[in-house]
Amino acid sequence: MPAPKVRTKWRPTLALIVYVVLLAVMALPILIVIWFRAVEVSSNRMAPAEIVALAVVAMLTLAIAYVLTRTITGPIDALIARTEEIARGGKGAIRPLESYGTREIAVLSQSFLDLAGKLVDRTEYVGSFAAHVSHELKSPLTAIRGAAELLRDDDAERPMTKAQRLHFLDNIVADAARLDVLLQRLRELAQAETPVAEGKSSIVDILPALRGQFPALDISGKGDTETSVALPREAADIVFANLAENALQQGATLLELSVSADARTTVILVRDDGGGISEANRQRIFQPFFSTRREQGGTGMGLGIVRAMLSAHGGTIRLLQTAGAGAEFEITIPV
């Protein structure tokens, strides 16, 4: 969910308020001294001037206390109350405060709203992801169990033919292979979201391994392929292997990696000549477990892993519009 934005307007800094308050406090005794020097003290009894001076001091003190409460204590207490409300109410409680007082508290509140929004999104993502994982694992497990039960309950009087037995065994092997692929994707996704390694790599480094892993694809590199980017070799292998596998599943025979770089970022265009991505699916391709090639072994996790891996290293990926056949992705990553 997009985080609510703090309304932009001029607010005094906390330092300004502190300095003004200190100057006001320092000015009080000076004003009192000047006042009494201007007035003759004729008796030991408290003169009306003294009463007025004390009243003025009391009023100024109360005013200073009100300013501090209004600009500092009040917004902080409101922010504390809002955190407790969010803890109880979730997404509905994520909204701006009524007043912020100082610029620093406004910035703090915006950072808190951003963090709260990300935590809520993360919680919803974990819940949705767990449901998808449960469904994806349950389907092949159910098929394996069903085939195994049929094989176990084979009737001696009416036994299965060899072809039927091989059919069920092939189904078990295929579903076991699908489970293995799902678990491999889950490991890659976990690695993408909790990166620990740092390092650099370049397209020229990963091309040989990529060609060996996907011999059916004619993979080429263009441009600044020797430019190093802030992506460890293992992470780069995972990113481009998933993109190559996605292209292969779409019927591609060519895969081109075109690299351009400046002083701060590198842009890598990944093009293929496969079936492309339909307009209806363009907004869904990065959703977990979305696949149009499930029957051919697609898990729907590849592009999600690519995005998570790049995001963990400060990069981004987006799908570009293409005039002809195939798909084209733009990867931007720091050098």
TrEMBL record:
N-terminal signal peptide: none
The keyword Transmembrane helix appears for this protein: yes
Membrane topology classification: Multi-pass membrane protein
Occurrences of domain Histidine kinase (ranges): 132-335
A cellular component annotation (GO) from this entry: plasma membrane
Keyword match Endoplasmic reticulum: no
SUPFAM superfamilies (alphabetical): ATPase domain of HSP90 chaperone/DNA topoisomerase II/histidine kinase (SSF55874), Homodimeric domain of signal transducing histidine kinase (SSF47384)
Name of the protein this chain belongs to: histidine kinase
Organism: Rhizobium leguminosarum bv. trifolii (strain WSM2304)
